[in-house]
Specification:
CATH topology of the largest domain: Tetracycline Repressor, domain 2
Number of helices: 12
Helix content: over 70%
Shape: globular
Radius of gyration: 20 Å
Amino acid sequence: MAAHSSVHSGPATRARVLDEAISLFIEMGFTRAPMSEIASRLGITKAALYYYFASKDDLLIALVSPLLDRIDELLAEIAEAGVNDDLARRQLMTRYAALLRSDMRVVGIISRDVNVSSHPEIAPRTAAHVASLIELLAGPDADAERMARASAAMTVVQRGLFVIPGEPALLRSMPRDARIELVLQIAFSIVESSNADNECVN
């Protein structure tokens, strides 16, 4: 009874459930992680856990939605303002990277767990984000090269946040702030060199 009543303590316990769930999803993978293990680690019953989340899918959506919502808001704001020069492109990539860095555990499970990235309520949203980012960076009436450069720049930003197995020690040992700064500079150069080439032609 004590365990069941403790889960009814409101938002604080809901946050504990989410925190424990994402740790377990990272450790075991979304598909293999049982709700019973989440309940056990929190010292509550499964019935108490289901008081907050009707299913593991509901729990997953609750974990990832806040970040996806913030990206939606960023893209809507940027689209309204327009991306008309290299400074605006830099600001878009910098702000997007900052959003990803604000919730790296969520970004990690989306990026590394195919059962999460392909989830029917997650995959359409992340695909729409990527498409919008590329479109904004490439600009209106972009040709294939500018689209490819925008796509490459976004891949650099997204993948550059994580240490990749087999990376040289020099990269693995970089402080996170220094790493993302370097990644952003590379991404900027990919997009901006395309714009510079176009200006020279014109």
